Amino acid sequence: MATEAVVTAMLSAFANNWPEKAEHCRDKRTVSFWMQFLEDMDDGLLRATAKTILSEAKYFPKVADVREMAFRLQAEVMGVPDAYQAWNMVKRWMRLPPTLFRDGKHLKRRPLPPIIQKAVDGIGGADMLGMSENETADRARFVDAYNNLMGRMRHQATMLPEVRELVRAAALPEGLKRLLPEGD
């Protein structure tokens, strides 16, 4: 969890980088404000995020910029592929036989990572892709589906825990209830 010392140091570094904001950054109310929106973040991740922002940003960041950069850094470190890399993984995976007999054993091909599998399923599944004759259209549909799923994942990852709990506690609007299957 983010400590006040790390948030204060981050704001101080921002103040050095954007001198016109210096007085504002050193105000206790400002530190308190940033703390309430960053308290769920790890100190190390916050330090790395601040350094990245200081080296890349042209304008003074907002809380949302810090949270978004943290997500981006984590995705990069975890090796989350972009949409076109994911599509290439799908194409390679589809060229592999579903089962292989090697050294007296039946081996099954490894499944695709869950988010990639979800994108494939969202455009009709692997069987449909295997029968399709329009790879350009398939790639475009996959890229859209994958980017949509990544956007949802990014939104979930950057959502404040307090907001998540408030939304869970709120009643679901009738319009959304009609879209869900019975029993949900």
Question: Explain this structure to me?
Answer:
- The chain starts with a helix and ends in a 5-residue tail after the last helix.
- The chain folds into two domains: 4-78; 83-179, no CATH class.
- Helix 4 (43-56) crosses helix 5.
- The protein has 184 residues and is mostly helical.
- The model has no long low-confidence stretch (mean pLDDT 91).
- It contains eleven helices and two strands.
- It is elongated.
- It has helices at residues 4-17, 22-25, 28-38, 43-56, 63-78, 83-95, 114-122, 125-131, 135-158, 161-169, 174-179, and strands at 99-102, 105-108.
Overall shape: it is elongated
**C-alpha end-to-end distance:** 33 Å
Gyration radius, rounded: 22 Å
- Proportion of beta-strand residues: under 5%
Indicate the structural class. mainly alpha
The low-pLDDT segments are: none
Give average pLDDT, whole number.
91
